[in-house]
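Incident review: delayed structure delivery

Summary: a single-chain prediction request sat in the queue longer than the usual turnaround. Root cause was a stuck worker, restarted by the on-call engineer. No data loss occurred. The affected request and its eventual output are reproduced below so the record is complete for anyone auditing the incident later.

Affected input:
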Amino acid sequence: MEHEDNMSDVIRKHLEAALKDFGELIWAYVVLSKKDMSYMFGVTNYPGEWVKRYKEEGLQYTDPVVITALNRLTPFSWDENLTIGAGFHFSELFDQAREFGITNGYTFVLHDYNNNLVTLSFIITSDRKAEIRQSLINNKGDLSVLLASVHEMYLALVSLSEKNTAISEREPQFTERENEILYWASVGKTYQETGMILGITTRTIKFHMSNVVKKLGVANSRHAIRLGVELQLIKPVN
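Output delivered after worker restart:
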């Protein structure tokens, strides 16, 4: 649960920063397993009461936006008149969503190699209908790339979480020396400065940092430091 909360915080901050130039937007990033749609991960600023009801009642199974997205590769707009397949229309969900102003939107779609359906949806509010719709359409290329980059981050965080779970609780994530090096790097010290503090060579620091990179399954030390900070894996050094 703690790792999921950390993942949500990381993804939320990334999306908020990326979307700030679009003004006030209501959005939802959702990951659904196509093998078992009861598994759902989401980060959103939708009304909290609606999100709670959606999860508790398992509305993803009859959500026409979800069902449409399962059969799409490209972004699509939707409203209360969205039909599925051979003209099927699930009006009940929109009847409930109308109470929260969720009746019109635009959804970006991604299908990943883990058999997940991934969506980034935006609510098109009545007071800014034309403005929001045009902005989303004009920037759909950038927003599709944003969805891909956010989901890539999610997959990396899930992988890291699984590795952490597999490690026995009695074993520390890092050795004491690895933690020291990560800590000083996280507060802005260079390898040379860290070497002076710890009384070791730069070569030794690089050796330990390469082990940290392997443990976290990331591409480089910069990514390792960022994840260490964001997921609170680094212990303070006295």
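Verification: Confidence is low (pLDDT under 50) at residues 166-171.
Action items: add queue-age alerting; document worker restart procedure.
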